[in-house]
Give the backbone structure.
Amino acid sequence: MARHRDIAASPVRTSAETWDAIRELIAATLARSEHVDGAMVRRTLDHAAPAGTALVAAGYTGGADITLVAAPLRLTIRTVGGYEAFKAHADENLNPVPGAASAQDWTVYLPSPAGLSALGDDVIEGAEHLSSGPPPQEAQESANTSTPVIDLRRLDPARRS
């Protein structure tokens, strides 16, 4: 299930405040799953803060997604800066994103622009739930999830037994 959130950045928030908002959104979303420890998510994203803050400050997250994959949820996050940040802030939804309650595992995919790839690689090295690679395609994720089958014939009153 694909979801998206826009997060207001500068001049509404500093890059560190923006990263904190992203961290809390991801942690609160994943904390809905009994299989994911919200405190561990926060620690992982705190570890990624140097890269995340730099990506936000340089404006890379305004044009490239931070992607959380926690099957069946696929959450893309972008930051909005400049004049548009004020509108984004007014429309912002920082509540937990529905869809991760059954997640068993998760990965946050950070953009890896040429100028910051070394910093990203340093932060991501050894971090189990962080990646600088491209996120998997949605088709692959949906193939791993089950969809309930509804027998529409049973909804027809004339066919009920």
Observations:
- Residues 27 and 42 are 6 Å apart (CA to CA).
- Confidence is low (pLDDT under 50) at residues 139-147.
